[in-house]
Structure prediction request, 438 residues.
Amino acid sequence: MPDVTNISDADAPLEQENHAALPGSELEGPASKVGALFQIVYFLANLATNAILLPIIIFLIPHQIQILDAANHVTSLGIVESIGGIFYLISAPLAGALSDRSTSRLGRRRFWMLIHMLCASAAIVLLANAPAVWMLILGWSLLQFFGGALLTVVQTIIPDQVPVRQRGMISAYAGLAIPLAAVLGGVVVAVVFKNTPLASYYVFLIFLIIAVLLLFAILKDRVLPREKQEPFQLGSFLRRFWVDPRQHPDFAWGLITRLLLFLGYYAVSTYLQYFIQDGIHYTRLFPGKQAIQGTLQVQSIMTVMILICSFTAGIISDKIGRRKPVVIASALVIAVALFVPAISPTWTAVMIFAVLLGAGYGGYLAVDTALITQVLPSANDRAKDLGIINLALSIPLIVSPLIAAGLVNSLGYPALFAVAGILAALGGILVMRIKSVR
Prediction:
């Protein structure tokens, strides 16, 4: 792994401030760099957690809805995705707060990793055997809740275990896991099990169990002593979820910028398969092929670009000690990518869209994650605060499909891509309002 040792002037004081806020040595921040084994296993855990979310909503649930409710597939997909998003909205901050308070002998993160993994596994089995759309809604809602909770706990391991000077690279691993999960999941669904795609659910299930158990085995998770934990009071527990934007403006701007970008991104990604099917008419362009194969091709191109750009952006950001310029540039590239199909809804435009979106998204995922870990208000509540930041992911999961369905049904797919591009551009420009990180 590259030796990344450059720390910006903005990084070091924040790290010291967070460490000073901790109640005892049991919660002290990371002092040394993480090794190759940790990096590999952490990447696999991120890959597995995203593999139970992204391929399912990109490939499997649209496929199941086409079978169960073909006449209303656009509206039904929006309903399934939006209701599931409500459960993700609840799960992320709640899971983070519970994890922060946990005094389990297994550690604050390891205990909840196991609980969320087991519950998510049960939801996958339910989805695999769903006989109607209402069962898809139930299964996806449960998977969003426990899968989102698991993702929050796994993300918290970065500020727990990784020093600031190494977070750009480790965040790149976490960022790469997102598109790679979509592509590898698409290969499993559209190639390996193309005749029986629902069998893919069990592949994702097995991978999740193995990856989480590996991380559980190697993670040196600190145990919070019971005497360090305040007695539980519902009122004070709920009040902890409020982060005053006047006291922590950079945290608020981090949330807003992510929210805007992902509102646009999820609106497009949710309906990508239907755009290729209904907007591009893929099966007419390529007789004998299905839209799901075109979607896989787009995801594959994106992943290659994300692989290149995420690590490049992460290394550059760590070396120069700056996050904001990389995040802003990446968001603007995403915006340009989204405008391409809006201007020219053709297969050639889709290929250009895939290249640009992969490049921008790769840089954004790698460096924005590192930026966010540097604006967390308190080291005592890292998981809870990351759960709140993840509202920027969960709110779009609720709102974006409804906006997208309305735009597609009334104005068509070009309007969907144009609105998404505007939102992404705003999300990038407003990163300049963050002051404590360079």
Remarks:
- The domain at 36-224+244-433 is CATH 1.20.1250.20 (Growth Hormone; Chain: A;).
